[in-house]
Amino acid sequence: MRTLKFLLRKEFRQIFRDPAILRLILIMPVIQLLILPWAADYEIKKIKLAVVDHDHSEYSRKLINKITSAGYFILTDYSSSYEQSLEKIEYDKADLVLQIPSHFEKELVKENEAKLFMAINAINGVKANLGGAYLRTIIQDYNREVRMEWIQLPKFSPEVQIEVASSNWFNPLMNYKYFMVPGILVILLTMVGTNLTAINIVKEKEIGTIEQINVTPIKKYHFILGKLIPFWIMGLFVLTIGLTIARLAYGIIPAGSFLTIYVFAAVYLLAVLGLGLLISTYSVNQQQSMLLSFFLMMIFILLGGLYTSIDSMPEWAKWITRFNPVSYFIEVMRMVVLKGSSLADIKFHLFKVFGFAVVFISWAIFSYHKRS
Amino acid sequence: MSNTVITANKLTKRFGDFVAVDQISFDVHKGEIFGFLGANGAGKTTAMRMLCGLLFPSSGEATVAGFDVFKENEKIKKSIGYMSQKFSLYEDLTVKENMEFYGGIYHMTDKYIKEKTAYILNHLHLEKEGNVLVKSLPPGWKQKLAFSVAIFHEPGIVFLDEPTGGVDPVTRREFWNMIYEASERGTTIFVTTHYMDEAEYCSRVSIMVDGRIDALDTPGNLKKYHNASSMDEVFLQLARKARRSE
Question: Is B54's CB within 8 Å of A211's CB?
Fold first, then answer.
């Protein structure tokens, strides 16, 4: 115990003397949480639309009017040549081209049927998909309106129509910030925890102090605890800053209890710090450890369910996410913050993350040798 | 036996096909200053790291302070001090904090740490620098400080790996005075160097060439045997045979 006291005292002195670490744990969470949620928006707006109108009729104008008034599209080009608007796509001046053929109005009125053509710039897959879907919905809507004008509706509509009324549970206004902020906080905690630990130990390797430690009769677990405890406390501190910002800047107050979040975070941090330790035992210098943790972070973040839903991933990717501690914490954060889940609801997540902690830390202790 | 604190018998370290230390055998007696000489890459540091329990030997036998280097390496660590080639005090801790930390790791009491720190600072005329961060000290002082910290817990044996590398002649002289003082208190000194004038200060000297010990005797006997006027000449005669360099 006494050895640990000396190790902790040394570690905290070094942390408080290192302006880089202080900046990292104070300023990074503030900036990331204040800026990222505004930029990381799921909604697609400002889709650039080019219209090729060969008809120039009342109906075609009505259609264009309806599309542009929906708020999602900006009419960037209105021409009468398909080639010309395709060029707009090539120069990235348009995401979608809607071609209205000549005789559009005539056919609609006479034949009761008309064709439109849509060309989509699929370089940005999300934008193309959603843009196309929005446009289709608007056109269908337009279609209905036109019919309504023409037909005197009988008491019962001849067409069977199913209307869906939906209400959004847990996040009634579909405020994506409620969804993003807890997730970003998890990423932050993961990066701070892993990187600080990894870099700290590798730095001792680089400057040679670890050799001086290895030649003392210090116990391996003392040394590792001496490294884990300070950064564990730092992690909980970052979490506190993050939750405060979530509340002050976005008015996010967890529906569940803070205790649940802190209990889970406490265990989660052990796993993350254990991973940092592990990275440090396999790296010789800071560059190596940075590259290794960047590599892992990329996978953890992309397969963590923050930006893309895990449910819609292919089976093999889902299988990988089961080995990703980040995915568990993101899910738990959303459950607790939005649904108000309790410790009992998240106990399986807790056990799994505890498992990660045990594996990572024992692996790190096992692979750290005082003698090479 | 009670007079022998380090024994090595055919101690060997291989890295793949490369034999860094090739069956070296020697004894170090209690209280002597044992010089470990050799050109760069001769295997001095590797041999020392094996004795300190930092590197696993490939074969042979060795004991330090009566403990086996293969099995009892952690016990060895209680009885030795070590100063590596790289400067390895914490630069972002003060002089006092470094001493407190290493004293604490060796289970010294708070009171004793305090007394000892005061004594050393006084002895090195560094009373004013006690609360100064180590990184702001000049290199020579750092070196002397590192030695003081290596023997802070009063080990029976201290290993010094090129302790005077890159230090000016005056400081080197002072450093050796510190080594003599420690030796007079009964500490055994195991020191590697490639300054031949320093070799003259040692009780006995071994010269490593290509991983083997080619000569081991007092500086006086070595000079006589090789018909040389200085250790420098002795060393050049032996080192010329070396086939490998860094």
Answer: yes
Under 8 Å between Cβ of B69 and B46:
no
Q: Is the Cβ–Cβ distance between A186 and A333 less than 8 Å?
A: yes
| Chain B interface mutation, best of A1, A6, A225, highest count of B Cβ atoms under 10 Å | A6
Chain-chain contact of B52 with A212 (C-beta, under 8 angstroms): no
Chain A CB contacts of B89 below 8 Å: 209, 212
- Cα A38 to Cα A242: distance, rounded to the nearest angstrom: 15
Of B89, B92, B106, the CB nearest to A14: B92
pLDDT in tens, A340-369: 899 999 999 999 999 999 999 999 988 888
B79 to chain A, minimum CA–CA distance in Å? 9
Interface-testing mutation among B105, B145, B158, with chain A (most A C-beta atoms within 10 A)? B105
Q: Please say whether the beta carbons of A208 and A49 come within 8 A.
A: no
Instruction: Write out chain B's pLDDT in tens, 246 residues.
Output: 468 999 999 999 999 999 999 999 999 999 999 999 988 888 899 999 999 999 999 999 999 999 999 999 899 999 999 998 887 899 999 999 999 999 999 999 999 999 999 999 999 888 899 999 999 998 888 989 999 999 999 999 999 999 988 788 888 999 999 999 999 999 999 999 888 888 889 999 999 988 999 889 999 999 999 888 888 888 888 878 777 654
Least confident range of A104-108, A223-227, A319-323, B127-131: A104-108
CB B92 within 8 A of CB A10: no
Contact status of A339 with chain B (Cβ, < 8 Å):
no
Q: Closest approach of chain A CAs to the CA of B233, in angstroms?
A: 34
Indicate the domain borders of chain A.
47-150, 172-367
Give the ipTM of the model, two decimals please.
Answer: 0.88
User: Is the CATH code 3.40.1550.10 the one for domain B4-239?
Assistant: no
The CATH label, of 3.30.950.10, 3.40.1710.10, 3.40.50.1370, 3.40.50.980, for the domain at A47-150 is 3.40.1710.10
Ranges of each domain in chain B: 4-239
Of B75, B93, B105, the CB nearest to A13: B93
Q: Is A2 on the interface with B (CB under 8 A)?
A: yes
How far is residue A263's CA from residue A269's CA, in Å, rounded to a whole number?
Answer: 10
Nearest neighbour of A215 by CB, restricted to B53, B93, B133: B53
- Residue B215 φ/ψ region, left for φ over 0, alpha for ψ in the -120 to 50 degree band, beta for the rest: beta
The three-state secondary structure class of B200 is: coil
Contacts of B204 (CB under 8 A, 6+ apart): B32, B33, B34, B35, B216, B217, B218, B219
Which stretch of A113-122, A200-209, A225-234, A318-327 has the lowest confidence by average pLDDT?
A113-122
* Contact A17/B at CB under 8 A: yes
How many helices (H) and strands (E) chain A has is answered by 14, 4
Six-digit token string for B120: 């050393």
Whether A25 and A237 have beta carbons less than 8 Å apart is answered as: yes
